[in-house]
């Protein structure tokens, strides 16, 4: 994860001090300096589940080695992906066959999202582009004020909402691109290079901001409905005070779950903005949640399971430390996470043990959360590889295979991750 710096001095400071941030894997190590947090080496794992690759292709050139928010989108049995050099591709989800492709010449950095005949993407130059899902034909484009490092979101009522890197929120007419409203929030001096994607709720749009603030807006005019500080920046240095919410908020019922960097994991009432509980846990890759629990990739690449109602920890998986894991994806009773070397890891939801692994790409890591639909996993790697997989019962013996490491189990946690009792 890189940094967005607002002066020459802080930009230099971010490069020099980035090594102090655990889990920060995109900063190169210079000379003979040794990385103090090297990725954990992988040990053999018992393949308790079979991973079946249905198809694998490389329809795009990926992210050009940069950490962008380019993710696969699925609609009407069609997958859509874009790359950092401006290529957009539509693919048959069943077979992997390319249906159409278009070269735009733009530097895509966030998206796409799909609604009806519209496909929305953002660029590093602050452009918002909407294409036709039928053939990739451009419908309109708009110039925003900053880079787009989140997914532009259709609201379902004729609008498109975008969160740009400078913490400005835009509401646009989805059919024409006309700006309907915008609201700008001041960002701290030093922030993580990323933005949370807007989350749609029945009563408004929820977005996480730099500095640890969560907001809810009226989609009609952008009026703030409530604002709450999930994590207050603290520490003596600007690096220590980073408390950004880059992980996308997750809505389950009427409760929002959100995590911040150098800060807290929290549950927030979606109607009132009241913080229901708060636990000390640094997270930026993302969260997943369903009726059985909350699952989090933290900033050191531990994977945690916690109780939805209280945040009490259930288990933590520590055998993938510093491997730059994606946010977890839920597939059946499993969790799926990608890593910096192109591996996809599968964990049992109930106890966190590693139960399977496969490599999607040998040339590019995985930064996009795996997409799950109809029991299938769609995984998009940084080199442009796109693969469709299913998981099921393993055909091999459940006994430990030769060379498998007994340490692939998770650590049980029978108490809260860590409590933060100070009021917001």
Keywords:
424 residues, mainly beta, five-stranded mixed beta sheet, five-stranded antiparallel beta sheet, disordered N terminus
Number of helices: 1
- Mean pLDDT over the full residue set: 85
Oligomer: single chain
Q: Give helix % range.
A: under 10%
Q: What overall form do the CA principal axes indicate?
A: globular
Strand order of the largest sheet: 3-8-9-10-11
Estimated share of beta-strand residues: 35-45%
Structural class: mainly beta
Largest sheet: 5 strands, mixed
Cα(first) to Cα(last) distance is 27 Å
What is the number of strand segments? 36
Radius of gyration: 21 Å
Low-pLDDT runs of 5+ residues are 1-30, 397-404, 416-424
Describe this structure in words.
A five-stranded mixed sheet has the order 3-8-9-10-11, with no helix packed on it. The chain has a five-stranded antiparallel sheet with strand order 25-26-27-28-36, with no helix packed on it. A four-stranded antiparallel sheet has the order 2-35-34-33, with no helix packed on it. It has 424 residues and is an all-beta fold. The chain contains one helix and 36 strands. Helix content is 2%, strand content 43%. The model is unreliable at 1-30, 397-404 and 416-424 (pLDDT under 50).
Question: Could you provide a short overview of the structure?
Answer:
It contains one helix and 36 strands.
In terms of topology, how is this protein built?
Layout: E1 3-5, H1 8-17, E2 49-57, E3 69-70, E4 73-75, E5 78-82, E6 87-92, E7 98-103, E8 108-115, E9 118-123, E10 127-132, E11 138-143, E12 153-154, E13 159-163, E14 168-173, E15 179-184, E16 190-192, E17 199-201, E18 204-208, E19 213-217, E20 224-229, E21 250-252, E22 255-259, E23 264-269, E24 275-280, E25 283-290, E26 293-298, E27 303-306, E28 313-317, E29 329-331, E30 334-338, E31 343-348, E32 354-359, E33 371-373, E34 376-380, E35 386-393, E36 411-412
Parallel strand pairs: 3-8
Antiparallel strand pairs: 1-16, 2-35, 4-5, 5-6, 6-7, 8-9, 9-10, 10-11, 12-13, 13-14, 14-15, 17-18, 18-19, 19-20, 21-22, 22-23, 23-24, 25-26, 26-27, 27-28, 28-36, 29-30, 30-31, 31-32, 33-34, 34-35
């Amino acid at each position: 994860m890189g940094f967005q710096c607002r002066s020459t001095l802080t930009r230099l400071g971010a490069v020099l001090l980035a090594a102090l941030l655990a889990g920060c894997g995109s900063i190169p190590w210079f000379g003979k300096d040794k990385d103090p947090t090297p990725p954990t080496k992988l040990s053999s794992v018992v393949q308790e589940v079979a991973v079946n690759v249905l198809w694998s292709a490389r329809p795009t050139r990926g992210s050009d080695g940069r950490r962008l928010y380019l993710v696969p989108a699925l609609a009407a049995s069609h997958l859509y992906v874009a790359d950092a050099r401006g290529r957009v591709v539509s693919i048959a989800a069943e077979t992997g066959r390319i249906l159409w492709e278009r070269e735009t010449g733009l530097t895509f950095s966030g998206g796409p999202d799909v609604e009806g005949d519209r496909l929305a993407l953002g660029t590093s130059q602050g452009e918002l582009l909407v294409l036709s899902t039928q053939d990739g034909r451009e419908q309109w484009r708009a110039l925003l004020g900053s880079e787009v490092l989140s997914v532009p979101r259709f609201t379902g009522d004729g609008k498109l909402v975008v969160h740009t890197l400078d913490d400005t929120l835009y509401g646009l007419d989805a059919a024409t691109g006309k700006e309907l409203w915008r609201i700008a929030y001041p960002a701290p001096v030093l922030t993580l290079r990323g933005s949370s994607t807007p989350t749609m709720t029945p009563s408004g749009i929820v977005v996480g901001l730099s500095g640890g603030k969560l907001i809810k807006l009226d989609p009609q005019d952008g009026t703030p409905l409530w604002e709450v500080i999930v994590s207050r920046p603290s520490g003596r240095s600007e690096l220590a005070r980073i408390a950004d919410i880059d992980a996308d908020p997750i809505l389950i019922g009427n409760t929002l779950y959100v995590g911040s960097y150098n800060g807290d994991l929290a549950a927030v009432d979606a109607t009132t903005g009241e913080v229901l509980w708060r636990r000390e846990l640094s997270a930026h890759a993302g969260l997943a949640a369903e009726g059985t629990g909350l699952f989090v990739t933290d900033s050191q690449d531990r994977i945690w399971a916690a109780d939805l109602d209280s945040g009490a920890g259930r288990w933590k998986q520590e055998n993938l430390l510093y491997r730059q894991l994606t946010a977890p994806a839920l597939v059946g009773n499993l969790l799926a996470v990608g890593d910096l070397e192109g591996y996809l890891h599968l964990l049992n939801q109930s106890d966190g043990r590693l139960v399977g692994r496969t490599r999607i790409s040998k040339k590019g890591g995985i930064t996009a959360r795996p997409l799950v639909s109809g029991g299938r996993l769609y995984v998009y790697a940084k080199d442009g590889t796109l693969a469709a997989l299913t998981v099921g019962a393993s055909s091999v013996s459940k006994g430990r295979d030769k060379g498998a490491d007994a340490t692939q189990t998770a650590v049980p946690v029978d108490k809260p991750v860590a409590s933060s009792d100070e009021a917001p």
